[in-house]
Amino acid sequence: MLVDGKHYRTIWESQDEGVINVIDQRCLPFAFRIEEMRTVEEVAAVIQEMAVRGAGLIGATAGWGMYLAARGARACEDWLAEIRKAGDLLKATRPTAVNLAWAVERQLSALKHCVDAKHAEMKARQVARAIADEDAAMCQQIGDHGLPLIRSLAAKMGARESVNILTHCNAGWLAFVDHGSATSPIYAAHDAGIPVHVWVDETRPRNQGARLTAWELAQHGVPHTLIVDNAGGHLMQEGKVDMVLTGTDRTTRGGDVANKIGTYLKALAAKDNGIPFYVALPSSTFDWKILDGSEIPVEYRDAREVTHLEGLQLGDLGAVAEEEESFRIVAEPTAGVNPAFDITPARLVSGLITERGVCAASEEGIEELFPEQFILKTGIGTAESELPHNY
Ligand code: MRU
């Protein structure tokens, strides 16, 4: 992805050995800052405080966190126990996006076969690189498979100007290593010359739509308009939405979708208005062990994100302050509650766009694309070494 004309990934190895860089997303869109991480504790803090966020990126960051943990455990006699402890630390940071636990488990299953700490450090680096590279590649393939859906909407459009796509939160390149999930087909369509316009839900309480999605669409030159979260249903009734396209933090093997709070309401409105509601995800975001969405743990965050807003103060003559400020929007003693995700049942989802293609949001549909996950479900006769990474 380009930022002011320069290609970036959201996470990368620094020139200095043992230093991992990320874009600090808390500062966007007002400042572009790079955060350095040297220890697994720093990685845990970066995930917890949402300097990085989004399912794929959380997974890739956890992968690099395990590398830093292995590096930090070089002098320890029981290095594997230290690395396992680090895995527990990382897994405790954010519960809903399954990519995090998946990346930690993938590292642990590779590292337990290492002969010594040095070997573990080398292996962990290889695995972290692979997780990041695969994430970027899968997202690119999601774009390839999602493009025909947008193309066929454009073909039906006739004289109408653009395909209007509504998205919620940020499932863009900032939520992954590159390309994004929901944004990948949008970028592919835009690059192919198909006129697209994106309705960007602001996505309270943290405003990932306003702060991140709008920023990255602007960087790519994709026409877009910011709307408040409550506007989507009305725009659908007015015929101004052709498709809803979101990401997901965890999707069950039955097709139930956990995504940013408010997604469920958009799916209901889309159903009522006969508008296709698609969810884009790499296979690392499937939770193969869960069938029913009610089993997905939903993260509850600090109520302060609800009772306060963060932003830049407009000064005299439109000049803006250097640092963001926090503004209370409700009087004491009113309390807030802050569930960060909701579950959209599979029956409201028109289809899942994955790196292998588009499938129905159902056990049968998902099994057609990922049969190996369903054969291995029983575990009968399968050696551990034969299990795919994301089992
Ligand atoms: O709380 P976040 O910002 O980590 O939430 C993740 C999201 O941005 C969304 O839920 C997104 O649509 C899915 S992540 C690809």
Count up the helices.
12
Task: Give the bound compounds.
Answer: 5-S-methyl-1-O-phosphono-5-thio-D-ribulose
Q: How many domain regions?
A: 2
Radius of gyration: 21 Å
Overall 3D geometry?
globular
- How much of the residues is beta strand, in percent? 15-25%
With strands numbered from the N-terminus, the spatial order across the biggest sheet is 8-7-6-9-12-17-18
What is the annotated CATH architecture of the largest domain?
Answer: 3-Layer(aba) Sandwich
Which stretches are poorly predicted, pLDDT < 50 over at least 5 residues? 378-391
Largest sheet: 7 strands, mixed
Q: What is the ordering of alpha helices and beta strands?
A: EEEEEHHHHHEHEHEHEEEHEEHEEEEEHH
Distance from N terminus to C terminus (CA atoms, Å) equals: 30 Å
At the fourth CATH level, what is the homologous superfamily of the largest domain?
A: Translation initiation factor eif-2b, domain 2
Give me the secondary-structure category. alpha/beta
- CATH class annotation of the largest domain: Alpha Beta
Mean pLDDT: 93
CATH topology of the largest domain: Rossmann fold
| Beta strands, count | 18
Care to give the gist of this entry?
By secondary structure, the chain is an alpha/beta fold. It is 38% helix and 17% strand. It has helices at 40-48, 55-72, 79-91, 98-111, 117-157, 183-191, 208-220, 232-237, 263-272, 304-307, 363-369, 371-375; strands at 2-3, 6-7, 11-13, 20-23, 34-37, 163-167, 196-201, 224-227, 243-246, 250-252, 257-260, 277-280, 286-287, 308-311, 325-328, 341-344, 351-354, 357-359.
